[in-house]
Amino acid sequence: LSEIKVEKGQHIRQGETLGLVGKTGRVTGPHLHWGMSLNNARVDPQLFLTTTH
């Protein structure tokens, strides 16, 4: 992230901006690698995502 917009432990709402994405190193464009943990164990973030089409 080029800028973090939230703090650890902060409650967030759907649609809220968590941070801004930038690019560094040998990349072709801005992108983000992210993960989640629950009770100090890494979990698959997709378990918490819903898709609407």
Topology, pairings included?
Blueprint: E1 3-4, E2 19-20, E3 36-38, E4 41-43
Antiparallel strand pairs: 1-2, 3-4
Largest sheet: 2 strands, antiparallel
Proportion of β residues? 15-25%
What is the CA-atom radius of gyration, in angstroms?
13 Å
What's the SSE pattern? Answer: EEEE
Number of helices: 0
Poorly predicted segments: none
Protein name: M23 family metallopeptidase
Organism: Pseudoramibacter porci
Domain M23ase beta-sheet core: 1-45
GO molecular function: metalloendopeptidase activity
Write a short abstract of this structure.
This protein has strands at 3-4, 19-20, 36-38, 41-43.
List keywords for this structure.
53 residues, mainly beta, two-stranded antiparallel sheet, 4 strands, metalloendopeptidase activity, Cell_wall_metabolism_enzyme
Describe it.
- By secondary structure, the chain is mostly beta strands.
- It has one domain.
- The chain is 0% helix and 19% strand.
- The strands form 2 sheets. The protein has a two-stranded antiparallel sheet with strand order 1-2. The protein has a two-stranded antiparallel sheet with strand order 3-4.
- Strand 3 (36-38) and strand 4 (41-43) form a beta hairpin.
- It starts with a strand and ends in a 10-residue tail after the last strand.
